[in-house]
Amino acid sequence: MTIRSTSSHLSINRKAATRPAQPPAMTLDGVRAGINYLPVDLTIIKGTTVTAFGNSSDALSRLLDTIAGFYPLLGGRILIGSEDVSTLRAGKRGIALVSTRDPLFDHLDVRENIGFSRRAAGIDRSEIRAETGRMIALLGLDGLDGRKPEALTSEQKLRVSLARALMTAPAVLLLDDPLSRLDAHSAQKISSLLATLSRALDLTIFHAVSRREDALRPGGPVAVFQNAVLLQCADAARLYEHPASPEVAIAFGEANALTGQVLEISDDVARVHLACGGVAEAVATENLKEGDECLVCVRPDRVAPFFGTQSLGMDDDLPPLQGTLAHSLHLGDHIRMRVRFADGTEIELRRPPLQARQIPKTGAPVQVAWPAAHATAFPLRTDLY
């Protein structure tokens, strides 16, 4: 069962050529970071933040280490601006990396940690003192400059690490999931700080994260990876509404995935007979044909439940999706429900808390539906299961 929508449906794989307003700060041209890694192609425009979100923190760490020069490049090129830095050693590429694997020096205080790289480079002490003072103010570390790392919170330690990295005035700042060890409030504060730094310093950031909320906070493009494979890079709205693959829909959009067979395709909308029973509609991706087995992906917040005995089906050829309420949980800002169909398949729904009084007890019959424009039908690949 599908809720009809008056919105027009466009093929999600049609690409519009656009010319970037700013020059690229970093270009990954067929970069291979490991023997079994596929090439990565990615361009980051100067002054922007691109977040890398993936299911393998090890693969993203390896990619960032390779970009920074700590691992050998096994293929492709790394360009900073128009300069190929692929053969330059770490520290000479105009790239700074902040990682939880690179802790502060325990025997040095905050000011000494921040200025360490400049002292190692033989910079004049007075210049180091001035630059360090500027970084302390910029990173909100006033009054902490004499403390050792053991006396700092996790958030303060990260601020010191950021200051230390920025002392080198990098063209690109790489962040290897530094928010993962912070609580939600501290992570939000650091995300706001990074946005401020990006604007104030015209800073380009490539930020690897393992949590979806951390990927969304910067508000810029998100590069979705599966292991070491770049699946799609786009803003959050496009990733949600027009995922390039089922993996993107499921990993980033947390979509429900239902198998079925395409009955017909009209105006880029596929009518699908679902294996769990009922007929639904979804935007058809390229290469999907009538008669194909497919995977319909729809996000939990796009599925509407209907409780009651009256059938939503318009005729016998369009049976609704009928199931039972398996579970419901009020989480404050939304209600999470699970609906089980006759074949045992379950999907998740998320509804506004205002609908709490409308939700019956577990085991009650329920019908579900969604607008065709809010679901996507992909050709079924055997390697997904």
UniProtKB/TrEMBL annotation:
**Residue span of region Disordered:** 1-25
Q: Which residues cross the membrane?
A: none
Q: Which InterPro entries match?
A: ABC_SmlMolc_Importer, ABC_transporter-like_ATP-bd, Mo/tungstate-bd_C_term_dom, P-loop_NTPase, Transp-assoc_OB_typ2
* Domain ABC transporter: residue ranges: 21-252
Top-level taxon in the UniProt lineage:
Bacteria
Q: Which SUPFAM superfamilies match?
A: MOP-like, P-loop containing nucleoside triphosphate hydrolases
Q: Which GO terms describe its molecular function?
A: ATP binding; ATP hydrolysis activity; transmembrane transporter activity
Keywords (alphabetical) are: Cell inner membrane, Cell membrane, Membrane, Translocase, Transport
The UniProt record lists the keyword Cell inner membrane: yes
Q: Name one Pfam family in it.
A: TOBE_2
This protein's GO CC annotations = ATP-binding cassette (ABC) transporter complex
Q: Where is the composition biased (Polar residues)?
A: 1-11
State the protein's name.
Answer: Polyamine-transporting ATPase
Tell me what organism the protein belongs to. Answer: Gluconobacter wancherniae NBRC 103581
